[in-house]
Structures are given as C-alpha cells and as structure tokens.
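User: Sequence recovery, please. Input:
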C-alpha cells in the first residue's frame, strides 16, 4: 500500500467526538461569559439557540476539515500520516520504533466494525500516531505486523532471551464483583466534587427551590426550633449516609465502565490489556519496555486484602488529555495477594518480594517533619490559651494530633530493600504501596545530603527511571552509597538495555 489512503467517512464521528470533548474540557473558561450573559439569554432565548447552533456548526465544520485533510500510507514497514487543517503535520513512524500499540473501539464505531489504532514511541512528544476508522480485521493485522517487526528488532539488539510464542495466554480476568469492589475501595469521585465546588451555592439554591416546590423544606426539617438535637443528629447522619452511597455508586459505575470485560493476556513477550464497556481499549506493552511494577493499596484495600497492580512504562513527552493516562497504562484492578505474586513472578521470575525484610528509614524523618508542622500551630495554641478561646484551642489540638499521627504513619510505612537484581520501596500513609524495579533500568542516581543530615551521617537517594523518579529519604549514609554503587555496578557489568 504505497499510495496515500483516505479513511472511511465514519471517521467524522471520531473527529466530532474529539471536538466535543475538547469543548467540554475547556468549558470552565466559558463559565464567566455564561454568568455575565445569563440575564440577556433568559430575556432573549433566541440568542441561546443561535449560540448553540453556531457551536454545533463549528464542531461539524472542524470535523469535516479534519477528516478531509487526514491521509495515511504504509510503505516498507513504516506508517506515514498527513493531518492538520491550518498546521500541517507529516508523521513518519517506522514499525521498529513503536513502543505501544493500542486498539480503541468507541461505542459509535463498534456497530460498524471499525476501530482506532494508536501508536507511540518512548518519550514521543511528536511521534504519536492515531489511525482513525480502520476495519477491525485490518487493524489487528497491522498490529500483529508491527509487533512481529518489533520482536525481530529486539531479538537482534537484545541479549535477553526473547520467547517466540504466538499463542496468546490469558493471565487474569476481572469479574463484575471485582469491579464493584474496586469502585468501592478506590473512590475518586471527591475529585469531581472539588472541581465543581465553586458552583455548589448556585446548584444548592436551585435544588432548594425545586424541593420547596415538591413540599420539602430543608430549613424547617433541620431547624433546632422544631426538632430535638438527637433528631437533627439522626437526620444529618442519614443525609450523610445517602450522599456517601450515591458517591460510591458513581465510583462503582465508573469502575465498571472503565474495566468491564477486563482480561490481561500474554503473547510471547507482549502483555495485552483489554477492557471497557462503552469504549473498548486494547493496550499492548512489550516486556522490555516495562520499567516499574506498583502494588497499590488504599486503606480499605488493606482491610479486605486487595490491591491494584500497575505496570509502568516510559513516560510520554507530551501532555495527555484527561483520562488518557488511565487508558495507556496497564492496571489490574482489585486482585488478591496470590494473584499479585503470580503476575509478578510471570514478569520478573527472579524477584524475592515474598522473602524480603524491609528496612526502615531514620527517625530523623519524624523530627524534621513534626518540627516543621508543629511550630506555627504551637504558637497559635499559646495565643488562644492567653485569650481563653478554649473551643478553638481544643479543635486545633485535635487537628494537630490527627496530622501528627499521619506523619508518624508515613514514617512507619517507609521502607526499602535491595537484592542482586531489584530495588523494592514501600511507602504510604493509611494505605501501603510497593514499588519494584530492576537495577539495570536505572538511568540516573542522585545523592542528597544537607548539612544537618551530614552531621547525623544520613542521606537521601533519588533513582531516575524512564517512568519517573523514585526517592528514598533519610537513609544511613553508607547504605545510600551502597545502593548507588550497586546500581551503577549492575548497569556497567550487565550492559542490559533499559528498553
């Protein structure tokens, strides 16, 4: 296929959806305009109709132009793409340089048997390619061809043993029960509540008006003049429980939408994640690209003995769209310890995670952060005691105790271990996370030591991977140097690639 090809007209749906997403993501900038124009719009609804029609027209025109100028061709194991309306882009991406292959099937493509192929390379700020509206069969064929070329290149360049196995093996599946547990234990809806906090007053007034129209008056229900204090307490507890259940329900629905039909498979040295209810995502990660494995447990995960497993690859150099980071990484939600150890052993068989004993960091960590935190509140307590403001005094004391307890828990969670091949880091507060990575993946080491730390013969170490930096604070000075020396020795002696 050496000639330039135009994608199917159904790609218009993709470009329309992208433009709508871009508009919604930038809606926050339009809020002041909407508020300042509210009176005019309410008096002249025609302006609202014209505005919406104009926006929809621009979205449709932009989508058509994006489709019209989008072309691609395949030649000599290379993908070329031309795109852009005002800013023309000509992307040339050889198969051998492709790091990730993702097949994404939005709900509006699936009835027509079309999909989107996303390709990117390590640190590819300008080398990500989206082949839009391909037939599913052709997309899978192209994906397999890319993986075969990449496998051949790795066999030629790498000294590691590369397995030539074309049979796909399913390593893990997640049931609907597992997704419900994940939604309950990893509740992130509070993020949206924070984002929409500026609009709570307006929304509350509108809801209050609607409820009064239905005969429900919250002001009277929660008035201390009409109800006893214990009744008010019961009402508040019930309202809080209902609100929490609604928020949890949204979190569970989000988990099901993101991870429905989850499977993690292995084909040769490629790990393949498939999931999604409305939009089906398929992410392929090559084992040599893996930089870091993370075992993540929130406090409720710790209670029920579940965890989330993350495979971290090299970070991309470009700014991701909201939600794209979640789609690109491989995460196995809500697994037990046995499943975690099985997947860990499949990826890195020579790890010693189960037999390790983690060492704690120095108690000087507590001295530093407790002293930094308690200085100002202690002065405020003295002022409040002098003014005999005992109510505020008691509240501040309670807050200081809670925060100090969290700092202590942070110190308790910090731990580290090292063997002949890997570094293991433990950290967290109420929950606990474990970070595992091979020594030969380290790209840069940094030895940190302040004047006060030097007096105590302490130091901190930063270890930079392609997936980001990992820091171990307040180590004994000789241990910090030992970690750095051992890392550099493994890198120099093995000569193994980090990719």
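Assistant: Recovered sequence (499 residues):
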């Amino acid at each position: 296929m050496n000639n330039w090809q135009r994608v199917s007209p159904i790609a218009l749906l993709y470009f329309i959806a992208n433009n709508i997403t871009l508009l919604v993501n930038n809606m926050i900038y339009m809020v002041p305009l909407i508020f300042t124009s509210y009176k005019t719009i309410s008096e002249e609804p025609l302006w609202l109709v014209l505005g919406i029609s104009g926006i929809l027209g621009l979205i449709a025109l932009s989508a058509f132009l994006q489709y019209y100028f989008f072309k691609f061709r395949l030649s000599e194991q290379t993908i070329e793409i031309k795109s852009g309306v005002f800013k023309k882009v000509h992307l040339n991406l050889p198969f051998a340089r492709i790091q990730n292959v993702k097949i994404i099937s939005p709900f509006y493509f699936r009835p027509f048997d079309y999909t989107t192929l996303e390709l990117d390379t390590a640190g590819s700020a300008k080398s990500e390619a989206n082949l839009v509206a391909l037939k599913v069969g052709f997309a899978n064929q192209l994906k397999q061809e890319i993986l075969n070329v990449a496998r051949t290149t790795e066999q030629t360049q790498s000294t590691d043993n590369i397995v030539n196995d074309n049979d796909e093996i399913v390593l893990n599946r997640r049931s609907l029960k597992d997704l419900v547990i994940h939604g309950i234990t990893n509740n992130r809806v509070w993020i949206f509540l924070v984002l929409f906090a500026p609009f709570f007053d307006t929304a509350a007034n509108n809801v209050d008006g609607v409820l009064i129209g239905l005969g429900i008056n919250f002001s009277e229900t929660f008035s201390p003049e009409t109800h006893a204090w214990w009744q008010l307490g019961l009402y508040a507890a019930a309202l809080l429980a209902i609100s929490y259940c609604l928020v949890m329900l949204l979190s569970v629905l989000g988990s099901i939408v993101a991870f429905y039909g989850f499977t993690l498979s292995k084909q040769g040295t490629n790990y393949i994640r498939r999931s999604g209810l409305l939009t089906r995502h398929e992410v392929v990660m090559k084992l040599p690209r893996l930089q870091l494995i993370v075992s993540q447990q929130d406090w409720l995960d710790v209670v029920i003995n579940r965890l989330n497993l993350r495979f971290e690859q090299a970070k991309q150099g470009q700014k991701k769209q909201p939600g794209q980071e979640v789609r690109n990484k491989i995460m196995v939600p809500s697994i037990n310890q046995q499943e975690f150890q099985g997947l860990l052993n499949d990826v890195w068989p020579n790890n010693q995670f189960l037999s390790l004993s983690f060492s704690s960091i120095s108690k000087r960590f507590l001295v530093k952060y407790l002293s930094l935190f308690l200085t100002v509140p202690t002065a405020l307590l003295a002022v409040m005691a002098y003014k005999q403001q005992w109510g505020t005094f008691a509240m501040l004391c309670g807050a200081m105790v809670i925060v100090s307890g969290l700092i202590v828990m942070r110190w308790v969670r910090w731990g580290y271990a090292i063997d002949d091949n890997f570094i293991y880091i433990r950290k967290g507060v109420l929950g606990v996370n474990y970070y595992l990575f091979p020594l030969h993946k380290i790209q840069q080491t940094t030895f940190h030591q302040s004047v006060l730390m030097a007096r105590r013969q302490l130091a901190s170490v930063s270890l930079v991977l392609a997936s980001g930096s990992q820091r171990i604070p307040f180590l004994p000075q000789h241990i910090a140097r030992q970690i750095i020396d051992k890392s550099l020795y493994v890198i120099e002696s093995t000569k193994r690639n980090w990719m």
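The chain has four domains: 5-173+261-275, 183-259, 290-361+414-494, 364-411.
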